[in-house]
Amino acid sequence: MRSCKARTVLLGALILSSGCVPEQPDVDPALPKERQAELYVDWLRHIDPHVTHQGRQRLREIGAAAVPALIQAMNDRDARVRAASAQVLGYVRDIRALWPLTLAAATDESPGVRHAAASAVTWLGPEPNSAMHSAFRRCLLEQTLSIRYEGVPLKDAIQDLSERGGTNVHTNLGALELIGIGPEDTIIAEANDVTLAEAWCRVLVATGKPVTFQIEPPIYVSSVEALTRLVEERRQRKARRAKLRRLAQRTESGREVWQRLQTPVREARFDGMEFSSVLQFLAQAGKVEIQADWPALDSVGIKRSLRVTYVQVAAPGAGLVKGVHRGPVALETLLWLVLADVGGGTELEFIVEDGGVFISTRKVIDERLKRRK
């Protein structure tokens, strides 16, 4: 006897060959985006693959406004709809989908949906197009394995997956503790011939709490709440830096300085080097003046002699290693990495003024920007 899926495919082929494909009603573009998304989700149920493809495309174009409808569709009875929704959510990369996708990757009855959801989870990292992220993602999706954890401490299961996958892992123990999970808490998780990404989802869902992972890299395990907060902080930081970039390019001298900040750095290693020496290196590399506001930096405990903990750019073609950025890297990016390293809990920034770069605390930078208005 043919399977239900086989009969559905056969029926679809007969309908398509007969030319009697049911028409899909157009969606009024004047409708709110959220309502449009609900209607386009219906297209994912259509028997014509061209219509379902168009539905996915339209949902991708709607973007964040489609996320609620797509999350709801992850509970649809039709596995095709669930898988397609997971694929679109991976493309949209909205943090609201992280937990629903993790759950689906761990518990959905359809192997196709589990794989699509796990794949989408791996897209929700901060730098999905970086070489390091791509390497981790391939490892998570191309490697298959079987797991069997019966009453195993969570920390041991995480360590086992890390070793078997050959991937570094950082666990936010503080965030897990806040939702009642300790490293010695035990889990029960079992799966055969699943991708490494699916295995991670199964282990973390087995805690019984909203816990998941992102590719930083390395793999970063934390609570959904903490990851959501982290993503929002990054979004705000990215918007802030974009604003500073626009302000810098309002004048001809500013544009010239910013152009120099795009100088590619192919290889560099600041491992224990003094902060002031690193700034000298960057100034020479970009042929740009870099002035640090030492009085303001000293007031928050950042001295000239403070050591940069670990910032490294590897030459193009070098192997991918945790914490190492593959060159070439723009001087601007390298400067932000250094400021994040020495700043610790203090947010340091830089602006372009007087034909050079000025580094200080965010408070001082804001004061200077206000005086410009």
Shape estimate = globular
What is the CATH architecture term of the domain at 249-372? 3-Layer(bab) Sandwich
CATH class of the domain at 249-372, named: Alpha Beta
Give the strand tally: 13
- Beta-strand portion reads 15-25%
> Helical element count?
17
CA radius of gyration is: 25 Å
Unreliable stretches, pLDDT < 50, 5 or more residues?
1-5, 7-22, 318-322
> What series of H and E elements makes up the topology?
HHHHHHHHEHEHEHEEHHEEHEHEEEHEEH
What would the average pLDDT be, to the nearest integer?
87
CATH topology of the domain at 249-372: Phage tail protein beta-alpha-beta fold
Query: Strand arrangement, largest sheet?
Result: 2-5-4
For the largest beta-sheet, the strand count, sense and barrel status come to: 3 strands, mixed
What does this structure look like?
The chain has 373 residues and is of the alpha/beta class. Among the domains are: 1-92, Alpha Horseshoe (Leucine-rich Repeat Variant); 249-372, Phage tail protein beta-alpha-beta fold (3-Layer(bab) Sandwich), CATH 3.55.50. 53% of the residues lie in helices and 17% in strands. It is built from 17 helices and 13 strands. The chain has a 3-stranded mixed beta sheet. The chain has a 3-stranded mixed beta sheet with strand order 7-9-10, covered by helices on one side. The chain has a 3-stranded mixed beta sheet with strand order 8-13-12. A hairpin with a 3-residue loop joins strand 4 (211-215) and strand 5 (219-223). Helix 3 (49-62) packs parallel to helix 5 (79-92). Mean pLDDT is 87; it is low at 1-5, 7-22 and 318-322.
